[in-house]
Amino acid sequence: MPRPIRARVDREALLHNYLLAKSxxxxxxxxxxxxxxxxxxxxxxxxxxxxxTADGFALLDLDEAVALREAGIxxxxxxxxxxxxxxxxxxxxxxxLSLVVHRLDQLQLLRQVGxxxxxxxxxxxxxxxxxxxxxxxxxxxxRDELARNQAVSEVxxxxxxxxxxxxxxxxxxxDWQLAQFRAMVGEWRGPVSLANSAAILRYxxxxxxxxxxxxxxxxxxxxxxxxxxxxxxxxxxxxxxEVIAVQQIAAGERVGYGGLxxxxxxxxxxxxxxxxxxxxxxxxxxxxxILVGGWRTRTLGRVSMDMLMVDxxxxxxxGVGTPVTLWGEGLSxxxxxxxxxxxxxxxxxxxxxxxxxxxx
Length: 360
Ligand SMILES: *Cc1c(COP(=O)(O)O)cnc(C)c1O
Prior knowledge:
Elements: E1 6-9, H1 11-24, E2 29-33, H2 35-39, H3 43-50, E3 56-59, H4 62-70, E4 77-79, H5 88-94, E5 98-101, H6 104-113, E6 119-124, H7 139-148, E7 152-158, H8 175-185, E8 192-193, H9 197-202, E9 210-211, E10 237-249, E11 254-255, E12 261-262, E13 267-272, E14 289-292, E15 295-300, E16 308-311, E17 323-327, H10 333-339, H11 344-350, E18 357-359
Parallel strand pairs: 1-18, 2-3, 2-9, 3-4, 4-5, 5-6, 6-7, 7-8
Antiparallel strand pairs: 1-10, 10-13, 10-17, 11-12, 13-16, 14-15, 14-17, 15-16
The chain binds pyridoxal-5'-phosphate.
């Protein structure tokens, strides 16, 4: 018998969430963002669920792009960080990938390599995120390069929002970046791509030609102050395990490494086969929500490598073998993440290889 932990990926939820993203921006096409192994859900699981529906797939690694082509994906595939070396370009051409370019030398290299066919290019503008992209003072050189570049087919202009998920009242939102974008693109009439999940949901006017939903596909909310459920999203991953032992402890006894939890009353402690080596956040403190036998209870003490402890005192029916949901259906990953001081993105991406993933 393997350990009872597993992650179940729900294809219908992925499809539902993709279509929900599209419904917010009816005139736009949507790149399904499947980087980082589809946010831990399995690249091919996500691609399979969306194969008939997605307008395109966006990710980072050339290997993953090739894997999508080999799995039969025919839609456009966009490399969100572009390419890293001239050698990459042969595969880019062979598999008809689209490229983000964010530095002038990428365009120059593309021109010099002499590919057998032209490549669709997303030119990334840095409008204030200050991560990737061209700054205003580089636009002259960029224009000159694009004018002489025979390796580029269609050009799309893109940018990325830094605060689309910010507090609606206190945050700065997107207007300041949009103003910068407008100033940078001038008279541009070609295609544009701006919006991530947060912008799709909160600022659908930024939908333009192509949107780039990521986290919402997987059923999590990009916002700290709005639940996934209230946004109509369905969890795409449910992480489950079982209670593998029970300890009855007296008031004053402590639980786990460091004895971080001290019982105030007689307490029934359940031991669950899931720990930080499975991807559960070690920072999750006592009180992190968890479902045991479908009932909501709390974790106790410090998460260990392969196990964590839960409070079964009020769950008389629960015992060895009772199913546990760490996150997913019935308990949003967003809630668990918030309790652990992080975001669901990190929980999903941290799901360990040793956790078997099944597809429903
Ligand atoms: C990851 C990523 C996205 C998706 O962001 P979410 O917040 O997950 O929707 C969109 N655009 C770019 C460039 C990205 O790197």
